[in-house]
């Protein structure tokens, strides 16, 4: 097979760096142009010293002519920048957007949470998502060349809860999610509260009360899983910052639908087991073992566990991912594999780096 | 005033060590006997090297005759050990129990979650808890000599939510709490999953699905806050282990009662502000500022913030405490102050150690 | 006794915040004006949320007229700013400078390492430093009103090694020091390598090869300990950044002088034990127990241990301090106590916050 | 090419787990038997939840007959266990020992530091080590079937300093090394000082004064680099435990030989650059950039930097490795590649997982 050439726009950030780490281990892809804004001209080794084999590569200015001659272009840019760039790239180039720009199908959801104009939506790159009525989101990705990579929290939350919606077990009325993220989730922004001295020892919430931009994306995904006939899903979502570099732990609870009130913990578990039996990256842990972010560090796997709290009638589902791998760059490479017609798991690590 | 003498049974553990740290800064108390089980005979400096002024003090065997001649005895023992010991101490000795033995008023709540016989209940040492119908739990502590120190999670969760129950705003039907704790909360037990290499970088839940022993204590407190006429409170409680030595962040959500459905975020905030206006240790943060565990490290303060998520009709209240200070040892010293007739805040740090 | 009033210039930084934390626990001092530069007008609670009792105090602009009416003024400013400010304050005001401006007695040492003009030197605030020929640096501080607080690394390194110089045991020719510091040592500067995601999991050196500004201060102190007749001291000093918020661990080795080549490990230990027998804040650990930064968190104590590596003829001395407490703000308060004629230990915590 | 089968004895520990992580990404090796002692019968997923693809594999009892039928056997056992096991394996089996048993060529060095009988020595598996007089240790590994994997500290220290010895620049008389290690270096032993709550925020030394077992191995390697004519090397080695799961940062200083006293920093740098120009895993950073453990997490690379402190006449060389990858398991796989005649870099990650 011919080797594909990939460019990364936004190579200076954490998402860009993680895409490059994964592409270094990808057998079918050659790393082409690396571009960024203010750090153009800098050797990559000064920005990402962990990418030893690329230390001498120099960042170029992000520009269409630099990106155009590649088989695939990854966009790892702040939201609002992808649309213009994508529009100028030749149609033959597959484009994988790690930003939020093309994730939401509902314009109002976008305008409520974002401050740039709505750009439309692309195929949504969460292949494992069960779709209400049968099938997976994967099917919507076959043959696409433009894919919107999901947000990190939506990936964890959606995969934690979706089997319950696809199986018609969960009420969408009163979902409560509290998720903890490593601080790389905030990117490289130079803010005092992200300094190491502030972060270590600190757990704190942010965007409380419905303010986080990932809320409509979570609701969109759980509605997809519920299927067209079902009621919409409403989520109380509280993200928290945890004292670790990477990882998301999403603790998600939803009430059993009245129609499913006879279901017991084993029945719940069965629904999740069936949903993920054939998914290479989603791993339902053995009963009694709960996910830990440490176990998926650097891996594209999602660890999931679920139980029923019978006292209160709530299903509790927990997922752990690496926010930079399955939560961003791993998903992006997985989407690239689908867009380029490669086996979906090519080049993606399934083992975490632990302890 | 005459100096009081205090003994600590269970001085080798984290709770015992923190009681000693606080007593070292207490102007009215002299540290008497330090006792423990298997570490009797060891100098304290080998177990708690941070307690420099006590480095040469030697741990004695826990025994009634060693403890008896003190004004106050702190029990920092595994659950099930306090009742027998307390029964043998002279009545003149104030006893502050940091264990779970005497916290629950409901025998069934005890037997569902604990494996030792029910020992009854003592005055519950959460002075700041608003009591439904008016007043505070503080009033139940005046003149008492035997006090049960609250659990760490119940302290954070109860103080986060109680104002809403005392003010008749919140439904008790479907409370959802997800809390993160530093690993000192698990004590000094030598278990592989508590090793530093496993803990750093790891967020993981435990006791999921209603299994944590603090659940009935949380429900008891919120029912106390609701008052006698109100319906009971049911909590879906998921504790998680966070990669930090100390601290609890409790993210708590409850639905507005139908009767309160017209209340807006400002109204909610007012209820919390009124509840804690005169509480020295409970600090409602300015609007928009959310609690962080790092800000209460080593302090007896509780930082609280609350808002209303209007989209989903849930109040979200968050509290941060130091699990070893306000969550255990600070509360114990506060209770001791009340039991001995000292000003409640004597010797208790209000500033955290940060960054 | 009349309560003294203290002002803090530079209250927005980590050193300023730690001074305030300590003053909150000081029985003889009342906190007066808090000043800073760009954050003037901000409530302290937004900058130092851990200082709960001061949350509503508002930062003022740093200016002579704001600071003048106090008994003592702490300067916690970037180097180069103290001299001008101090010159304008009334002579009756005690001034404690936490910056580097007045630490070095040797102008050349200053100009080699700093980029602002040499401002002279003040009494050097390391009371415990043994002085060659007998006595302590404490004696030079009695009755002074202007004191230069030592740097954090020099405090740890000097107290680790000085007994050996004061006792005529160590060669000054080839001292090697490697020290690890928590990231608060770098202050609140917004630099990418200080972000939490970069810092956690990272040990890295900086200023390698003699470039760190604390080198001449370390050499000055060890020369002071050696006494006037002795040869100068030359130090190879490598600081490293460690993944923790606070703390310095200084590992210091020096060769035995030929004249002392018969000394064994017990003889070495005796010299250290004698040097610190009466020092309240310097604690020589029991034989075999080595210092840990975790044991001095938030405390003004220094933990020291020493041994002789007979195979290679080097003494290895290790000291642990909290860089913000004994390393900066605790030392500043200790100096203030001396300047104001208070007992030296007043208001200073001797127990660390652990675990 | 035919796929090789590898067994891992000691699969339950951190070294065993890391070998498995790397073998999962190795294109020429199939994972065979996994054995251990007390955890035989346990599914691997309960011990190493990060090794998702092997979660259902069950640990077997360590026994010759289980291990014999493989092309290569990795021994990741406590010291003293490898000799007996290795002696019973068929000669056709390549054996890669991660323990200390066969590292030291000098029996006295062994008996001074270890409590089990001396077992002899195998080919020493540090291919990159420059050998005095020319060549590399790699040459001694060609065609060998039994290889002793170096210790983690010796790998970092030896690669940091060896170029200076091979080039005849450094004195062996008075080397001083201070190294920091992540806590996985202490293995999974259940000791109180390794608990997460104790480790976070803690830097502390251990084995101070020449007591660490890696000392003779470091000296052996630097003597190898010096070559047969040179004087021996003596090292003052102080290891410290750092609050991170993985990583070693070794700060190493040695005096210039008198004969090399005219060499300047550029000359030093040239020697290191030449030594590692063709080494795939040893990366001399650009001038001014210093190694960080975070940059080599999970990677088999070594980051090195060196300078000359002209004031004191000492070369300061710093190396960062991942103690479990290049420090143990990565080196083991690299040795396996050599033993099996595969390209040396096969299956070994060169990019770290950061941030």
Automatic annotation (TrEMBL), chains A, B, C, D:
Listed name of the protein: N-acetyl-gamma-glutamyl-phosphate reductase
Catalytic-site annotation from UniProt: 152
One GO BP annotation of this record: L-arginine biosynthetic process
GO CC annotation terms, alphabetical: cytoplasm
Function: Catalyzes the NADPH-dependent reduction of N-acetyl-5-glutamyl phosphate to yield N-acetyl-L-glutamate 5-semialdehyde.
Family under the similarity heading: Belongs to the NAGSA dehydrogenase family. Type 1 subfamily.
PANTHER family: N-ACETYL-GAMMA-GLUTAMYL-PHOSPHATE REDUCTASE, CHLOROPLASTIC-RELATED, N-ACETYL-GAMMA-GLUTAMYL-PHOSPHATE REDUCTASE, CHLOROPLASTIC-RELATED-RELATED
Keyword Amino-acid biosynthesis carried by entry: yes
Residue ranges of every copy of the Semialdehyde dehydrogenase NAD-binding domain listed in the record: 5-134
Biochemical pathway: Amino-acid biosynthesis; L-arginine biosynthesis; N(2)-acetyl-L-ornithine from L-glutamate: step 3/4
InterPro entries per UniProt: AGPR (IPR050085), AGPR_AS (IPR023013), AGPR_dimerisation_dom (IPR058924), AGPR_type-1 (IPR000706), NAD(P)-bd_dom_sf (IPR036291), Semialdehyde_DH_NAD-bd (IPR000534)
């Amino acid at each position: 097979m011919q080797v594909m050439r990939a460019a990364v726009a936004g190579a200076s950030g954490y998402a860009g760096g993680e895409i490059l780490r994964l592409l270094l281990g990808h057998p079918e892809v050659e790393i082409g142009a690396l571009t960024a804004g203010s750090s153009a001209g800098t050797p990559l080794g000064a920005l990402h010293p962990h990418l030893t084999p690329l230390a001498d590569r120099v960042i170029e200015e992000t520009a269409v002519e630099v990106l155009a001659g590649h088989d695939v272009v990854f966009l790892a840019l702040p939201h609002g920048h992808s649309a213009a760039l994508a529009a100028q790239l030749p149609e033959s180039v597959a484009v994988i957007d790690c930003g939020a720009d093309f994730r939401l199908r509902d314009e109002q959801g976008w305008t409520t949470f974002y401050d740039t104009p709505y750009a439309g939506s692309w195929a949504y790159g969460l292949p494992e998502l069960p779709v209400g009525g049968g099938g997976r989101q994967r099917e919507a990705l076959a043959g696409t060349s433009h894919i919107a990579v999901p947000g990190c929290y939506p990936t964890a939350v959606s995969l934690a809860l979706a089997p319950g919606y696809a199986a018609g077990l969960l009420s969408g009325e009163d979902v409560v999610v509290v998720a903890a993220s490593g601080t790389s989730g905030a990117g490289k922004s130079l803010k005092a509260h992200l300094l190491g001295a502030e972060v270590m020892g600190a757990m704190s919430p942010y965007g409380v009360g419905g303010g986080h931009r990932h809320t409509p994306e979570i609701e969109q995904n759980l509605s997809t899983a519920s299927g067209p006939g079902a009621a919409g899903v409403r989520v109380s979502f509280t993200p928290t910052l945890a004292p670790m570099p990477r990882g998301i732990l999403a603790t998600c609870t939803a009430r059993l639908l009245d129609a499913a009130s006879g279901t017991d913990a084993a029945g719940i578990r069965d629904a999740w087991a069936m949903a993920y039996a054939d998914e290479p990256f989603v791993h339902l842990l053995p009963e009694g073992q709960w996910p830990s972010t440490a176990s998926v560090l650097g891996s594209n796997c999602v660890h999931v566990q679920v139980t029923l709290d019978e006292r209160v009638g709530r299903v509790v589902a927990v997922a752990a991912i690496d926010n930079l791998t399955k939560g961003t760059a791993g998903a992006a490479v997985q989407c690239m594999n689908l867009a380029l017609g490669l086996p979906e798991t090519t080049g993606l690590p399934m083992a975490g780096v632990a302890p």
